[in-house]
Amino acid sequence: MADESLPIAAEGLKRYFGSGDDIVKAVDGVDLRIQPGEIFGFLGPNGAGKSTTVRMLTTLLRPTGGHARVAGYDVVSEAADVRRNIGVALQDAAIDPLMTGRELLRLQAVLYGLPKAKHGERAAELLDRVGLTAAADRRVGTYSGGMRRRLDLALSLIHEPSVLFLDEPTTGLDPMSRIALWEEIKRLNHDGTTVLLTTQYLEEADQLAERIAIIDNGVIVRKGRPAELKAEVGSPTLFIGVEPDVADRASEILAEFGELRPTAEGTLGVGLPGGSAQISAVVRRLDEAGIGVRDLELHEPSLDDVFAEATGYRLEGAES
Fold first, then answer.
1. Which distant-in-sequence residues (6+ apart) come within 8 Å of 7 by Cβ?
2. How far is Cα 86 from Cα 88, in angstroms, rounded to an integer?
């Protein structure tokens, strides 16, 4: 059974769809142990099983197998208790565009049973916290994408939850809005809130999470602290651009210097144990073979490298 002393604990969590030959194993045996006051990053591409896992942990989807406890309660047998103790901001949150931000927060306070005398005070406090005081009485339909995400975060905090689930909270946001939301997540965590953050942005996981888990095809393929996972990759990666007609020959030559690594289409990659000191030798060897180099770049180990080593391909949307 999952540990009830932890804010989030799951053992062998599974969710299958369909049956027989058409069965889809969206989540296939996920184990998680998230510590109190931790920001935990759940990383993976679209369709890897991140959102399905979150929906099971937040009682929106019944597991096919395994066990999970959130805020000390079983997600199946004590679902109502789980919901009373968590905050959830999902990708596809339904926010009434005809209501104002203040009206939505007051409605949320009613739904969570807050004393009527505190509705206005709590709404004003959260609007200020997420930087929406000036837009409090505007209809949500006039809000930008970043403003809607911040309002959704405020709605998830109305009852002061001990555990907060953020499902890809910055997808589609501009860089400034993304950074503003990061800062708010850090402040919430500093106040003691445990956060499970799903994301497909490597930089986001690196900036926010104390530990991460990488999920691919419903299975966790790496888990640990970002710095430790990057150190395990070892040598830096040299990315080289060559013409397509000589790519195969170039790959053979690069393999003489180190392990070939997955890259985006149109680029070759090799791990260089000697780092930058080997670059000139690589370029000279390619030149001797009559292969011109369009561009090259040496990257220290990153979460993208961790993901590539674990799965054999680069994460879509990865940022260097």
1. 34, 35, 36, 38, 70, 71, 162, 163, 194
2. 7
pLDDT at 199: 87
Distance CA 173, CA 79 (A): 32
Percent of the chain whose pLDDT exceeds 90? 64
> What pLDDT score does 242 carry?
92
Closest CA to 221 of 234, 230, 212: 212
Give the pLDDT band of residue 93 (cuts 50, 70, 90).
low
DSSP 178-226: HHHHHHHHHHHHHTT-EEEEEES-HHHHHHH-SEEEEEETTEEEEEE-H
User: What is the model's pTM?
Assistant: 0.80
Region 43-64: mean pLDDT is 92
- Residues 230, 60: Cα–Cα separation, whole Å: 34
Per-residue confidence band for 320, with pLDDT thresholds at 50, 70 and 90: very low
Strand partners, 263: none
- Nearest Cα neighbor of 54 from 165, 193, 160, 213 is 165
Specify the long-range contacts of residues 32-35, CB closer than 8 Å, at least 24 apart.
32/8, 32/68, 32/213, 33/3, 33/6, 33/8, 33/9, 34/6, 34/7, 34/8, 34/9, 34/194, 34/196, 35/6, 35/7, 35/194
Helix or strand or coil: residue 26?
A: strand
Residue 4 DSSP symbol: T
Mean pLDDT over residues 147-173, rounded? 90
Backbone dihedral angles phi then psi of residue 70, each to the nearest 5 degrees: -130, 130
